[in-house]
Amino acid sequence: EKGGWSSFMAKEISEQPEAVANTLLGRSADGAVHIPELDGLDDTLRGIERIVILGCGTAAYAGMIGKYAIEKWARIPVEVDLSHEFRYREPVIDERTLVLSISQSGETMDTLMAVKYAIEAGAKTISICNTQGATIARESDAVIYTHAGPEVAVASTKALVAQVTAVYLFGLHLARLRGTLGTAEASVLLAELQAVPAKLATVLEQHAEIRELAHWMSDTRSVLFLGRHVGYPVALEGALKLKELAYIHAEGFAAGELKHGPIALIEPGQPVFVVVPSPRGADSLHPKVVSNIQEIRARGARVLAIAEAGDASVLPYADKVFTIPPASAFFEPLLAFAPLQIFAMELAAAKGLDVDQPRNLAKSVTVE
Ligand code: F6R
């Protein structure tokens, strides 16, 4: 069943290009996104005033990325909440609110209960779900299925890239309905999304090199992760993977937050992964992240960078660089997750741990 791979997780990481490609299938025509599952909801989607995205763990990070994209492309305020926090704080929602839930299993009790709460309050509901016919999918007004295929390993990998793909498709669909993006601009974004599978396949070729680093770091007690914009949820995901698989203390930060506290954690030898934005683009956050790298490096941090191929500016300050093919800001997460997933998996394997079935965790959390 593992098809020659050492674990389901390794197999599922390798299946990520297909997970993205299959999620894109049948959802565009003539350079424009069209999601047939949302037919009949056009008026609703034109009329909504805000969006609340709900999910837990890795799915919530897909939601955070979705917020950046939907706000930028469709110009609607988006809030992201953890499903289990949402319904216990009397959230302000009504029939002009769209609740977009994200769940691989479609059975996560926290998310299901939050969706039910939203329905009671009169909100419209759409779910992004990887399991056909799952409870959350059935409860929602509409469902955008991710086509990642069954995910067996407890840690979510290919489902995440499929979720980000689906939320981007949704953002582009909404932008078209609401007229917030020019046709040309929207089709360039779609083309970039369609280019992800081939680019992601090249990122996966660095597996052996990442394994080497992970093995070498198998005694590490703490790892920090930094990113900005859509790279921030990538940092959070890198930390979550390391915690759940390798049982190592890890934290992800928005790089801009460093000087507001976390930089005090930096001491000589502290490993820090940094997700470096592309240097291209007028509004690139690249210079700011490079200056963060210089700040932590000056305090002795061991810098492990994920940067665009050809970006020479990080080389003088990084102890190790993993590269991703050039892509504009929104498409970097889809390429930058893989090195972090592989790192956590290989570090766990080096410690002799079961990467498919980490302690204390279940694949589908059907209790509150
Ligand atoms: C992390 C992980 C969990 C799930 C979370 C939500 O690797 O797998 O954080 O992402 O429990 O699960 P779903 O997406 O099934 O609702």
TrEMBL record:
Organism: Leifsonella bigeumensis
Upper taxonomic lineage: Bacteria, Bacillati, Actinomycetota, Actinomycetes, Micrococcales
Keyword vocabulary terms for this entry: Aminotransferase, Cytoplasm, Glutamine amidotransferase, Repeat, Transferase
Residues represented out of the complete protein: 246 to 613 of 613
Subcellular location: Cytoplasm
Top-level class of the enzyme under EC nomenclature: transferase
Domain of life: Bacteria
Name assigned to this protein: Glutamine--fructose-6-phosphate aminotransferase [isomerizing]
E.C. numbers: 2.6.1.16
Quaternary structure, from the entry: Homodimer.
Encoding gene (name): glmS
Active site per UniProt: K363 (for fru-6p isomerization activity)
Catalytic activity: D-fructose 6-phosphate + L-glutamine = D-glucosamine 6-phosphate + L-glutamate
Domain spans labelled SIS: 41-180, 213-358
Role, per record: Catalyzes the first step in hexosamine metabolism, converting fructose-6P into glucosamine-6P using glutamine as a nitrogen source.
